[in-house]
Fold these 2 entries.
Entry 1:
Amino acid sequence: MITKDDVLYIADIAMLKFPEEEIDMFTEKFAQVIGFVDTIKEVNTEDVEPTFMVSDEAGELKDYEENETLLREEVLQNTVEQQYGYFKIIKVVE
Amino acid sequence: MDITSLKAWEMKEKLLNKEISSKDIVEAHIKRIEEIEPNINAFITLNKEEALKAADAVDKKLRNNENVGVLAGVPIGIKDNIVTKGMRTTCASKMLENFIPPYDATVIEKIKKSDGIIIGKTNMDEFAMGGSTETSYFGTTKNPVDPSRVPGGSSGGSAAAVCSNEVPLALGTDTGGSVRQPASYCGVVGLKPTYGMISRYGVVSMANTLDQVGVFGRDVKDAVLMLNAIAGHDRRDSTSSRRSNSGVFIGDDDNESINLLEGLKVALPKEYAEMGVSNKKIQVLFDEAVKVFERQGAKIDFVSIPHLKYALETYYIIMTSEVSSNLARFDGIRYGHRAEDYKTLDELYTNSRTEGFGEEVKRRIMIGTYSLSAGYAEEHYKKALKVRTLIKQDYDNAFIDHDIILSLTSTMLPFEFNSIINDPVEMYKSDLYTVPINIAGLCSMSIPMGKVDGLPVGLQITGDRFMEKNIIKAALGYERAVL
């Protein structure tokens, strides 16, 4: 059974926050969904290999070669704060 | 002549015969958009000036007798989760409200190279999560057939734009039915190719092993024109396939005197027949469509897809797991919404994500994070991947003796806005028609097969991986037989 603490724990890993008044409703909905997907436990999957990708082609490696990359200004054009050509965030070390 | 009511291939013919110019085509569509957009809201961002410039460039090429590409002069709508250099790409989310991509997706490069004209970015459910285009941060899109109803989703803007003659062609993306279901609801053709057929480079990932770019047109020939222009292997997408050579989908099939349905081996999943459809009028339409195939000489057979009944659970676990992983990149630092209020780096991440994402997106990230978390990964995520193997095998078996599978695209009619989905069982059954196709990576399309109470209903034609030619043949054959 999913508890309110489970929801808070998952929210913390997912880097999301929910207002106190929404947590109970969310826990209930969450439990419903998890209850629903739990039915696949009844499928017998002994000796069945997992399918991560449907393609049967092996992943390809690219040759190492010089390529054009984005310009520094292009990379920085969508950030909120930048300084000296870098992304700016708050100070994390003293 | 109303240019906007022509098919894309008709526009192209008239352009090449010098009956109309590319500028005429684009201006007619801009006028149509200006008239109807206040009522439909199919677009998030319009690209009028650039579109007119691109049209002038095509006209100049034609004046100089230079070769032009396969999409010459044709206006195209692009779902707003496909990045366009210099043109805002929002994924219909507050998170990317002001995001201007510094590069073009491969499909956009291909459209430009083929002389297609990008007229704007279409509305969608936020990050492609939804089936009604109601979760968009930029307001809902209305179904042009009945504006009190949803256009379907998540590619609802693209379907509505094609339906209402705002554009003849559009791109969408399909993770669990997001091209086929809105095509069904708006009465247009929507084709989701095989996984790996079209490059996903520059397509914002939702669930990367299920996502595939799809195409919309008002007839089968138009959808195929669009598909031919964008299919093909791309070294920048490691999941794109070497089997996806472009330009091979219509050859002799274009000769209208040929009966394309003769001898076609058609399978009907018996699990769908057993489930039934609550709206009997929809069932009647489907039965009639099957009879059309039969009368034209197709061989109809029932097959069993035994693990179909676990498809939705499997889909939800895999999809949400991939969503939680793919959307981890939105951290508020390099691009996207950044909260103003934070004291630590963790707060910057958490507050930016909490403010930037809508409710449905957060719900899916949460479920996915749970499925992947320590202690549950084995019994949820790994288990779902194994059931995926079984579902894929079921379809592999069905295609040993059959060319296509026929089903409904959706068991529901387009519903009214804010009508709380009052029939969850029907909703559940409905998704069971589109979702398994993505799990198995198959190709599939929805084509109009008539109306119930004035609302469009789609026929879903599914083929084996990289057997697009079979579903296109069947769709063209059906279209010719009923028109």
Note: The two ends of chain B are 22 Å apart (CA to CA).
Entry 2:
Amino acid sequence: MDSMSEMDSVPERPDSDQVSADEQRIGALLRAVAAPAPAALQYRIAALNVDRSARRRRSIARPRAFGFGFAGAFAAAVAVVVVLLVGSATAPPTAFAAAQQAALAKPTAAAPRSLVAAGTTIAFPRWSARGWPSIGTRSDRLGGRTVTTEFYSSYENGSLGYSIVSGAPLRLGARGHTVTHSGSNYWVIRVGGAQIVAWVQAGHTCVVASRTAQADTLLKLAFGQDGASRV
Amino acid sequence: MARLDPQSLPGHVDRLYRAAWALCGSPHEAEDLVQETFVRVLARPRLLRSDDELAYLMRVLRNTFLSSRRTASRRPQVTATLDALELADERATDRPEQALAAQELYGAIAALPEDYRLALVAVDILGLSYREAARALGAREATITTRLHRARSKVVATVDSPSTQAEAPPPREGTAPLQSPD
């Protein structure tokens, strides 16, 4: 069927009955298989729109002023603030900055059915039933640690990244505030336009970050993770 | 000139997904194609010459499809690894017969020569008028009409051919095979 000559064998002006019959048959075939786009695709498109709206809001609120892009300025701000926050930590301070930035970055791979963070025994949760289907993953290396991130998207709350850092727990900063739930501590801080919640699970640092969701939404998701999904 | 409203775009995802599937013949590639199309459209504010968003999206979809094909043809071919296969989307469907019929139909459309495929996708799947399709595809209306007749004829012949019917699974109890309306 892929040759043009085969197409040319079809009369250019077939009789009108045949034209009508083919048109109706095609219509019937297409209607019979008409299915909506997969939910994951619809969420990804919705997330693109949310991301675009958030970028637009930020650019309106704070126009470019220093000769480099706002995204770059934001990333630099996060790095600087976090380095200041954890400057006296025993662990390399840039590792925590990397975890936050990874959680706020973009996915580089499709989301698998299940994913265990590299260098840990922690499996990323399935949050579809809570309105946060997975939309992708990424992996970053920094200072001998691996930061594995899974991204989730919600119609109501935009998108978030959940990063798990391999190796010993990072020391969290003194700023922000701590919320205790079921004996575990959750560190909550707002950096630039991003809301960040971090905690230690199974001996590793976990970070949930979002530019669109509120802290209480992130905390509710994080609370369910303590002691869950280990392999 | 009207400005394209990004908030209205999610309403076109279903039709665009089916159009993309018919263009590339694979539901997985179709997802990537639709996502890439929306990434391009949302990259900056867009002005429409006419008010028809769908015709504009068709143009972007076609351009994205063609450029992705060109890029893919330049890329070295690699064999899929087991890891890649495990990561593949294993969506389950509760209507396997419909999924098979869709794969067969969209596969037949995807096997058409490009110009014919685009004409059928624009008119029969996206629902553009002949004039809109001609404008979106940069062809004369009469050309679109001819391509459409031939494309429909070929697809119907492929889907209804005895060999295709023999490969199709038997209809489930209580369901009827597709029939011509006439």
Note: Strands of chain B lie at 2-3, 47-48.
